[in-house]
Amino acid sequence: MSALIEFNGFNKFFGEQQVLNGIDLHVKPGEVIVVLGPSGCGKSTLLRCLNGLEVAHSGSLKFAGRELLDKATDWREVRQQIGMVFQSYHLFPHMSVLDNLLLGPVKVQKRERSDALAQAEALLARVGLLDKRDAFPRELSGGQQQRIAIVRSLCMNPKVMLFDEVTAALDPEMVKEVLEVIQGLAREGMTLLIVTHEMAFARAVADRIVFMDAGRILEQNPPEIFFTNPQTARAQQFLEKFSYVAALPKTTQTKELELP
Ligand SMILES: Nc1ncnc2c1ncn2[C@@H]1O[C@H](COP(=O)(O)OP(=O)(O)O)[C@@H](O)[C@H]1O
Ligand SMILES: [Mg+2]
Fold it and tell me: What is the pTM for the complete model shown?
């Protein structure tokens, strides 16, 4: 099957600084990709390039067979097919949940309100928030707002969803409810590109882990290989940080547990 998203020799600069370097990444329809790597390695920039939020690039970036780096690209249209959810939810505070959800489908996509409403309500029910349809964002928890933000994106019927550390700002007890929504999308066969620091989730949800460092992709492997047998020293170091205590030598662990 041909790729839905294709980065080929893709580079991205901020002024003199090259933040993406020779990116080759092909994502097939229905694939779930989790992008891992240390802070500042270019994960967010990679996702943002797919949304036309970044300029100053070279190489090739295709979506559904179309070159996006062409001057003629209509990003307004492309963005409707590529949903993106960030760390902060960006719901309109003065609008109810339903009005937030209907804005894109009705105002931007010019769909029938009744159609869009039926879809919005079905999606709300799926994430367990139908009873919040008339609530305002300030009346919702962070986890609820983030689930609404995901639904808002889904209401545009995107071909792919990008998630950039969507649980990073949430209290721990709310992380699970948001990750479950994403896992549900994965199970349904939606194409997903996910940046996360939740390693157990990454391992469970990903078809492929893409490991980045300093603007380059160093590894692309199924999770069972990446997490048990990382191929590069950088990936090994990265993973060790997430299993800090387990990686400590036994003597150190014992010492830390001793009371003075
Ligand atoms: N708007 C910007 N202007 C200049 N440099 C930026 C900008 N956004 C990101 N960068 C730089 O690009 C690099 C990659 O950033 P980013 O993609 O946010 O990394 P990550 O998401 O992996 O933490 C970093 O060195 C960062 O400082
Ligand atoms: Mg980031």
Answer: 0.91
